[in-house]
Amino acid sequence: MPVAHLSLDPAAVLAPVRRRLFGGFVEQMGRGVYGGIFDPGHPASDRYGNREDVIELVRELGVSTVRYPGGNYVSGYRWEDGVGPVEARPTRLDLSWHALDTNRFGLNEFVTWCRAAGVEPMMAVNLGTRGVQEAVDLLEYCNVESGTHLADLRRAHGSPAPHNIRIWCLGNEMDGDWQVGQKPAHDYGLLARATARAMRSVDPDLELVACGSSGADMPTFAEWERVVLHETYDEVDYISAHAYYFEQDGDLASFLASGVHLDRYIEDVIHTADHVRAVRKASKYIDISLDEWNVWYQTAPRETEPGWHAGGRRLEEHYTVADAVVVGSMLISMLRHSDRVRVGALAQLVNVIAPIMTEPGGGVWRQTTFHPFALTSQRASGVVLHGTLSSPLHETAKHGQVPTVDAVATWDEDASSLNVFATNRSVSDSMSLEVDLRGFGVTHVVDALVLGGNDPYLRASASRPVQPRAASDVTLDDGVLRVSLPRASWGTVRVAA
Ligand code: AHR
Predict the structure, then answer these.
(1) Which residue among 132, 271, 349, 356 has its CA within the 20 to 30 Å range from the CA of 114?
(2) Directed axis angle between helix 223-232 and helix 185-202, to 10°?
(3) CA 32 to chain centre
(4) CA 170 – CA 229 distance, rounded (Å)
(5) For ligand 1, mutation pick of 242, 303, 315, 351 (most atoms within 8 Å of CB)
(6) 120 an active-site residue?
(7) Cα(382)–Cα(317) distance, integer angstroms
(8) Closest residue CA from atom 8 of ligand 1
(9) Cα 29 vs. chain centroid, distance in angstroms?
(10) Catalytic: 52?
(11) pLDDT per residue as tens digits for the range 415-451
(12) pLDDT, tens only, 56-66
């Protein structure tokens, strides 16, 4: 069996494992909210209408931060419509998804849900159809304690304590021609800068995310990043990046190597941000908020019936094992760049391109993609290590020659526990991974789990779960870990002292 080697040293630390890397995203669309996280009258819902069975899976998934309310939706967002007495809330047209927005679930409901789920809210402001004033008003409503009109309005709406939301996105995908209020880079940069300045004068320690372009393949990338960061450099902390992959024309080999594309994309954003840093002679670094990433085929219906209507099945992807392998490999890439990728948000969380699915009136179930995310989030702790990987290579149509095995490791010194996350991108061959752990004093394998190797197109359903299984072939001898990875698989091994 061909062998890949990963060599690790406890002193070669890349970055701490940051919990925010394992964020998620709930957009006001489809069954993400209504019939997803929120379903008044459902037997599993609490007194607020929040589904407790969904919350249980959100906790199991290990999601840290949840971005809200969009996505494209935020570019027409009127936050005031979703606060105050429910019966007085207006129904509006949501232009981004050609949907009706009843505003039954609004800002305070979202914060209540976050507290119940134990996640941190990450809020986005509308810089599509709105601007500085509305963003500052939203911030005042959320974060000012009392004594102003909007802070007191929040209190009157039943939230005496401020929501204290720390991280904010300044708009969404503003270079996309699908975006309501799309803007040229310079215009967006000026608006984002003015908005950031005004928001910081209310709450100086906010963490702010400027919009990067909507993806690496946009014609605007990376000139957009350069122009936007030139205008906003002193005011923001992060530039956003969005990455969606899918298998095209039956080319599984290229699809499984999507992490190679993500590596290059992240590195291009870093280089662009650092170029602006050099030009501006700035000392601080701008980090990346990878606040939308996933597998997304864009073939699942955007709406199920013509006309304007609320909720309904939109973008409900049904994921395969191969999709899960790609999700796992994207997390490997994110961890490997976690010195600069400090925030992540899997897009999305429930029903809409999601790891968690609900059945109308019924239960919840885990898509295949649930598992690599949950296992990585649950196990990655301590620090991410700089590893030296040498792997056999193979050719792909889309990404050229790629390493067949990819892997990353985290080391938790306090717990004397080391986790390796690995993927085998070969469509045909098993691969062996050898990891040199002689510097760590680890003595035994705690467990080893693998997903893949059989039918890459297998899907889970409400009645048929697909789970990772124990890896059969794993040893730790004289400080060298050996594990075999079946074709088209993702896996994780935990070793300890
Ligand atoms: O996540 C689905 C959509 O993808 C988001 O609304 C948008 O930001 C992106 O294009």
Answers:
(1) 132
(2) 30
(3) 15
(4) 13
(5) 242
(6) no
(7) 33
(8) 71
(9) 17
(10) no
(11) 999 999 999 999 999 999 999 999 999 999 999 999 9
(12) 999 999 999 99
